[in-house]
Design goal:
Layout lengths: L5 H4 L8 H7 L9 H25 L5 H24 L6 H13 L5 H13 L13 E2 H6 L2 H9 L5 H6 L19 H25 L1 H27 L14 H5 L4 E2 L4 H4 L7 H5 L8 H12 L5 E2 L3 H11 L2 E2 L19
Parallel strand pairs: 1-4, 2-3
Length: 348
């Protein structure tokens, strides 16, 4: 992809404003229904419980791969409910958002406030080469300096990267208060969520001690890995494709960066994971509950025109294409695009 300078890209600024996009969206899209949000949460936990009951009743190894895929997918659905809580779009009540966010995220070992704060940084800087928090491009100079383990995880095992990111992300650990990720006023929130995680780890430890490692492996560890794969896959595909522009410096501004994402179709999984693939509208206005995103998307598509991106390519094919072609971006210029490094080094 050709890299153009900031000055030339200025002529390609958006022909509409954030206010224009907001006017195109019905007001109802910004109105969360507490009852509806709680119903989605209850449904997800109900399905999780039913899957556990079925797996325990059948208790045959031929069934466990089916159970693992289904339960891992439901863990991912729980994350999406907590995702709404983190954006304040689950309900109008902060205390309820924090409570449900902690419940849904703690059971999948995600520190709610730690994730919420770093995710806020991602939304505030989407499409910015240096400042984005999630699946931003690695520039050529950074790629050359990467160590073996970092390069292994980033480019060759991206679908299991999330736990590593939580422990040591771009700006520090999500579990320990640090100036890179948290403001001093947020330290208490960080420690609160970490306390929830420690408590749940104690519960998992008790289960393992009481019922054995095989029990833990079958009923929690593998479904958890399934959740991690789903989270990494979907997040990666939201922001990784060769024709998605990334900006830097004065060439970046919020709406321009927010549109540097792409909608994906996950087939029958769409309704299970709450249409999280409907992502462009979410990045423009993250305070919309997930069940309003389709309506909002249809409302803004005529206005956005070619600036709206959606891929109907099979998500597995899209992942393998992007993971084999989207390595680095140039150190200079704006906008820039993913491509192969100039001298791709062998992993050794």
């Amino acid at each position: 992809m050709q890299t153009v300078s900031s000055s030339s890209s200025r002529s390609r600024d958006l022909p509409f404003s954030l206010a224009d996009v907001r006017k195109a969206i019905p007001d109802v899209c910004f109105q969360p229904s507490t009852a509806r949000s709680l119903a989605y949460c209850a449904w997800d936990f109900g399905v999780v419980a039913a899957l556990y009951a079925i797996a325990a009743t059948i208790d045959q190894w031929w069934f466990y791969p089916i159970f693992w895929f289904a339960q891992g997918t439901m863990f991912w659905a729980l994350f999406v409910v907590g995702h709404d809580c983190g954006h304040g779009s689950f309900s109008k009540y902060k205390w309820l958002n924090n409570l449900i966010g902690h419940i849904t995220h703690t059971v999948i070992l995600v520190p709610f406030h730690g994730w919420r704060i770093s995710h806020r940084t991602h939304h505030s800087n989407t499409g910015h080469v240096e400042n984005d928090e999630s699946w931003h491009p690695i520039v050529e100079s950074e790629y050359k300096e990467m160590g073996f383990l970092v390069r292994l995880i980033r480019f060759y095992a991206p679908l299991i990267a999330y736990p590593v990111y939580l422990f040591q992300g771009k700006r520090g650990s999500h579990f320990i208060p640090n100036k890179g990720l948290f403001k001093p006023s947020e330290y208490k929130d960080c420690l609160t969520s970490t306390t929830w995680i420690v408590g749940f780890l104690g519960f998992l430890g008790w289960l393992t001690y009481s019922y054995g490692f095989e029990f833990f492996f079958k009923f929690y560890f593998v479904p958890y890995l399934g959740f991690v794969v789903w989270l990494d896959l979907v997040t990666y595909l939201h922001h990784t494709e060769q024709d998605i522009p990334w900006y830097r410096g004065d060439d970046w501004y919020f709406l321009k960066g927010a549109l540097s994402t792409i909608d994906r179709d996950y087939g029958f999984i769409n309704w299970i994971h709450h249409d999280i693939g409907t992502h462009v509208a979410h990045h423009v206005f993250s305070n919309m509950p997930h069940y309003r995103l389709k309506m909002a998307t249809e409302a803004i598509k005529p206005l956005l025109g070619d600036y709206y991106r959606k891929s109907d390519v099979n998500v597995i094919s899209a992942f393998f294409t992007s993971s084999s072609t989207c390595y680095t971006a140039p150190d200079e210029g704006s906008p820039v695009y993913y491509g192969l490094p100039k001298q791709k080094e062998q992993l050794s």
